[in-house]
Amino acid sequence: MMERRAPRPSELRPLLKFKKPTLSPKERRLAAALTIEDLRAIAKRRTPKAAFDYTDGAAEEELSLARARQAFRDVTFHPRILRDVSKVDTSRTVLGTPSALPFGIAPTGFTRMMQTEGEYAGASAAGAAGIPYTLSTMGTASIEDVRDANPSGRNWFQLYMWKDRERSMALVDRAAAAGYEALVVTVDVPVAGARLRDTRNGMTIPPTLTPRTVANAIPRPAWWINFLTTEPLAFASLDRWSGTVAELLDTMFDPTVDYADLAWIKDQWKGKLVVKGVQSVEDASRLAELGVDAIVLSNHGGRQLDRAPVPFHLLPEVAREVGDATEIHLDTGIMSGADIVAALALGARFTLIGRAYLYGLMAGGREGVDKTIEILSTQIERTMRLLGVSSLDELRPDHVTQLERLVPRR
Ligand SMILES: Cc1cc2nc3c(=O)[nH]c(=O)nc-3n(C[C@H](O)[C@H](O)[C@H](O)COP(=O)(O)O)c2cc1C
């Protein structure tokens, strides 16, 4: 039988681990988040339903997005052992300049609706982390203000070609004058995708107060206080708009844009040119021949064509076809640093994050975006170490296989 005795205070003291009470509620909230999913859960609690669903949702049955995320979850990593991984280098040269991490922030429209710091939070957090930031044509902060939020960092400008060419090109000129490094031309929006959550929620721009939105606002006071007490929410590069997002896209965007238009834009823009929304090997090769600097394999986070190819599935074949002359970037479905490592192993030079960044933004403004970057960066480093690589250039296709479930049959 064990003999029992009372514990001594000196034995108890080291066991008492009370959390330091110095953290603010926001810091506490963010400190508890270990994954991007955790940030998503916080974001959902704190953001009005229409704004959260606009961000979280995708087109039609949301199969493109679900499949893209599943494809990353279906990765098997093949580690090497007995390598010195005491130091790991997570930097990656993209468009000729090093980025501290192998991902940048994807362009997202109407970002100040998710949380009032919006584009400013994204751009300044990207600058602090040494990664590129992309401002959308549909942004809610101007080209110049974003440059001022990230004055010594790398800013890219995402262009949608409008029916009014002159106005589109006026934005391009402003981006050039403000020192933007790259023009990212998005080519997967000839018309708007059917974002059914937005339709069901009656999502309008700007958000309107109906009995339903007011009821939904009661447990989310911080968002509304921010919304009502900061600079009014508006598209920085468009006239005032009232209507649904889909109506806006269909009124503005030009469904006639083709390869000749792209070649014309290429002549106008002296910086780096990136084409975003590439979804076939054939288009990837054609763009490489045209001499663009990078293509982004992307289905717009599943917000356009539903049942679109999974960009991660296209990657190996595109990498074989396109080779090194044109950089291959990839987005859609990235929810962890391990997803990013898998994409680099299969031939992506760089990746972009959309929702992963927006969940952080909604969870805690600028600090929330910092948290997203920190989570992904920690996951990248740990995955590299466990794979036995100390620099990203050591990643090879044979570090990764994909479970067959979602691999297309040919
Ligand atoms: C709320 C939201 C708004 C977006 N707005 C734009 C946009 O204005 N222009 C654009 O090229 N892509 C836009 N995208 C697509 C992103 O740039 C990116 O391709 C996509 O989010 C990547 O998928 P992920 O969210 O799974 O990371 C948007 C995505 C989201 C989630």
Automatic annotation (TrEMBL):
Location of the active site: H300
Top-level taxonomic group: Bacteria
Alphabetically ordered keywords of this record: Flavoprotein, FMN, Oxidoreductase
SUPFAM superfamilies named among the record's database cross-references: FMN-linked oxidoreductases (SSF51395)
Binding locations of glyoxylate: Y54, Y160, R195, H300, R303
Residue ranges of every copy of the FMN hydroxy acid dehydrogenase domain listed in the record: 28-405
Catalytic activity: (S)-lactate + A = pyruvate + AH2
InterPro entries found in the cross-reference section: Aldolase_TIM, Alpha-hydoxy_acid_DH_FMN, FMN-dep_DH, FMN_HAD, FMN_hydac_DH_AS
Cofactor: FMN
PANTHER family: 2-HYDROXYACID OXIDASE 1, S -2-HYDROXY-ACID OXIDASE-RELATED
The protein, known as: Putative L-lactate dehydrogenase
